[in-house]
Amino acid sequence: MSTLAPPRSRKPVTTAPRAQVKGTSKKPSNTAQPSTAHKAASQAPTPLSPSKTANATNTTTLGNMDPAMIAVMWAMISEGSNLPRADNNDDGDQDIDMVGGTDTDGNTTQINIGNGDDGDTPMDNDKAPEGNEDVAMADNHDAGADADDEAPNTSKDTSNAKLKPVVAWVPRPKGSAGNGFSLQEEMMLAGPKGSKPSETYLALSRNVKTLALNACLDWTLDWKDIPNDSKVKFFAVCRANHPFLGQFINDWATEEIVKQAFRNMRKTAVKKGELEKKDKYAHLAINASKRSSAASRVKKAYTGVDPKEKKRALKKVVKANCRKAAATAARRSKQAAVVDQGDGDDEMEVDLD
């Protein structure tokens, strides 16, 4: 709030020492010389009220103020919520009541940053002057915040809410994924490409593979050679991140997903030469090199078997083929006999007519 002071008299007026601010040095103020506009003024000054008289004693000019003090005052004015309240002493004096200055017309501008004009009672928020609106709003906000802190918290905390455990009820089918059953169908996520179940299965497989690598599971080893303690921790993390996987008994779906992923990673590494083939698969490469594209694939079933056992198995196969051929020949001969007998009867009937 700014008020215009009355014009000064012809006699030079000496300003009172400016208010002392903590942290700044106290310097004597200079004597203000009357301007020509003030000398030409003939109107006598009007008497001031007691409150304005008390405030006028603390009025200083911005031109005579220390730059550090101006910066402090500007920071205090701009931050309304942090404005200090002046202490009401017994004699009515205040530490800092006003900050003033002289404009180009010679009028004095006063900005009240105190607690009030001259009252000893504390200022109410609803009766606060315009210059202290920010202070009143800040007080109301602080009071509301304190009330919120004291009030009991009745809202539900969903972050600490316990999730219902998923009951495992889907048994493991016979065989393994890709050799006995389809993993996507057994997980009830089968569907055409681009459908929601199919996309869910692919996203779930990628996430489980990422969790397995983050768990530091050695993908170069077979699943049975990986330590069990690492598997237990990995399964627990998968069930926590994806409760859907908890409905499969003993986490067999998660196990099959990881086994497929690690198997594909090993195959890719072997093709690139980053991983050596295991000795137990060496005979497969030898057999593949000796195999002819025109040869029968029946011989693949007897690879690595004792020659005697191989001969016995071949004899069984030959006998079975002979029995099948004999049964087929007997069936065909019977069919031919029935057809021939039926043709003769038809001819005789034709001759009788």
Give me some keywords for this one.
single chain, about 350 residues, 4 strands, about 45% helix, about 5% strand
How would you describe this structure to a colleague?
- Residues 22-36, 43-52, 104-113, 152-161 have a biased composition (Polar residues).
- The protein is mainly alpha-helical and 353 residues long.
- Among the domains are: 1-119 and 126-132, no CATH class; 176-276, no CATH class.
- The chain has ten helices and four strands, in the order H-H-H-E-E-H-E-E-H-H-H-H-H-H.
- The protein has helices at residues 36-40, 50-56, 67-78, 133-150, 183-186, 196-214, 228-241, 252-272, 282-290, 307-352; strands spanning 98-102, 108-112, 176-177, 180-181.
- It has a two-stranded antiparallel ribbon with strand order 1-2. A two-stranded parallel ribbon has the order 3-4.
- Strand 1 (98-102) and strand 2 (108-112) form a beta hairpin.
- Helix 6 packs across helix 8 (252-272).
Rg, nearest Å? 51 Å
Mean pLDDT comes to: 68
What global shape is seen?
elongated
Side-by-side strand order of the widest sheet: 1-2
Q: How many helix segments?
A: 10
Give the helix/strand layout:
Blueprint: H1 36-40, H2 50-56, H3 67-78, E1 98-102, E2 108-112, H4 133-150, E3 176-177, E4 180-181, H5 183-186, H6 196-214, H7 228-241, H8 252-272, H9 282-290, H10 307-352
Parallel strand pairs: 3-4
Antiparallel strand pairs: 1-2
Helix pairs in contact: 6-8
